[in-house]
Amino acid sequence: MIYLASSSPRRAELLTQIGIEFKCLPVEIDESRRDSETADQYVCRMAETKARKGESMVSTAAPILAADTIIAIDGNIVGKPADHRCCRSILAQLSGRQHAVLSAVALNYQGEIKLRVSKSRVSFRVLEAIEIEAYCASDEALDKAGAYAIQGKAAVFIDHLEGSYSSVMGLPLFETAELLKQVGVAVLKS
Q: What is the DSSP letter of 186?
């Protein structure tokens, strides 16, 4: 068994999908971006910080898995929308354009951090104002990086995905499985 330093239902669903037994640790960290920090540096620091924070919450030597996912467009990190107005603004910015999705996964085992990053490219078709309004009103976007959930209603916005679907969802399963295997955790066990 491992610990998942997250309360994300999407990450829990993805770990369950590959047969991993886990307990969730609701980790709270400061998610402020540092001056001159790149998107890659930021997402890696967030995942590692969550993994280290998780270690301080348990008394066993079990592996602690953490992840962070961000959206970047024109080199700028696009966070989670604070409200419906912010949701509309983010989706208007993504409309008809391609953006990067970066997901970092960190595994803390016996104080050693192993880190992997998945980079995907997502292209949105041009969105009509009425679609943006309806989607934001659904509240599906309010706790999602980039104001959308690929596994939800926003799937109809996506013209093209280059990379990992699970990474865009919030946990890159290929990279996660590789890290877990390195510490002896069986993936897809019967």
A: -
